[in-house]
Amino acid sequence: MSGFSEGAPCWADVSLPDLAAGQRFYGELLGWTFQDQGEEFGHYTIAQRDGRAAAALMGRMNPDLPAAWGLHLATSDAGKAAARIREAGGQILFGPHQVGATGVMVGAIDPGGSFVGVWQPGTHRGFGIVNEPGGFCWTENITREPAAVDDFYEKAFGCTTQQIGDGEHSDYAVYSLPGVPGPVSGRIKRSADEPADAPSGYQVYFAVEDCDAAAETVGRLGGQVHRGPQDSPFGRTAIVSDDQGVGFAIIDLSRTAGEPPAL
Q: Tens of pLDDT along 192-208?
C-alpha cells in the first residue's frame, strides 16, 4: 500500500509494558511476524503479515501513560499538519520529529482528549496490508466531546462528517475525505453510563479469518472478550483486550448480516 490521502489512517502502533509478551499474543492471534528496528529506534518492532507491514509494537516509555493502540494519519507535510492541528484547537505533544529516513512524525491530542499521530512518509509508507486477515481495516474515535472533535477533524484534515445515529440515543458519525471512496473512520460519543475516568481514544480494528475462533484465542492467550462476537452489516465483530489490558477490536469482514446504513 502507498499513497495514502491527506488525513487518512495510515499506521497504527501499540505501546506495551512487556514487548516480548505482546509479540507472543499478537503473533498467534493475527499471524504476525516481527522485525525489531534496533536500539537506535528504541526497539520499535514492525509487525508483518505475509511479509507486509501490518502495525508496530513498542515498549511503553512513560509508565504514567496508559498502554494503548495509537492511530496515525497521513500527511504530505508534517509541519503544515502540525500548524493546522494547533489552529483547529488540538495540542501538539511532540514533533515534527524526523525518524531517520523512515519519515517525519507528529504526536497530538485532539479536543476530545484522544491521541492522534501524523505521519509524513519516507521509506516507511504505512500499512502494507489492509482489509485482509491480519491487517488494519477500521478505526473509531471514542470521545465525550463529539461536536468539538468533528469540528477539529474538519478543520485540520478536511474531513466531512456524516451522522449515522440520531445524535441522542446513538451518536455515531463517519468521516470521509475528498477523493476517497467511502468513509475512512468513525467517531463515537462515549456513553454517559461509562466510568468517568474511561479515557478517550481510537479503537483499532484488525481483520481475522473467523471472529469466533479469534475470540476464543484471545481468551486462551490471557486476554478478555468484552463484547461479542456479534453480527453487523460490516462483519462479525468482537471488542477485546490483550493480555496486558490494551483494548482493540477484531472483525471477520466476510460474515455480514443486515443492510448497512445509507450514506
A: 777 777 889 999 999 99
57 and 22 Cβ atoms separated by less than 8 Å: yes
Q: Are 19 and 127 in contact (CB under 8 A)?
A: no
Q: Give pTM, 2 decimals.
A: 0.94
What is the CATH topology of the domain spanning 136-252?
2,3-Dihydroxybiphenyl 1,2-Dioxygenase; domain 1 (3.10.180)
Cell of residue 87, nine digits = 489552529
Cell match 473509531: residue? Answer: 140
| CATH placement of domain 9-121 | 3.10.180.10
Task: In whole angstroms, give the CA distance from residue 183 to residue 203.
Answer: 16
pLDDT digits (tens, 9 = 90+) for 210-226: 999 999 999 999 999 99
In which residue ranges of the chain is CATH 3.10.180.10 found?
A: 9-121, 136-252
CA 81 to chain centre: 19
Helix (H) or strand (E) holding 205: strand 201-207
Who contacts 206 (Cβ-Cβ below 8 Å, separation ≥6)? 30, 54, 55, 134, 135, 136, 137, 248, 249, 250, 251
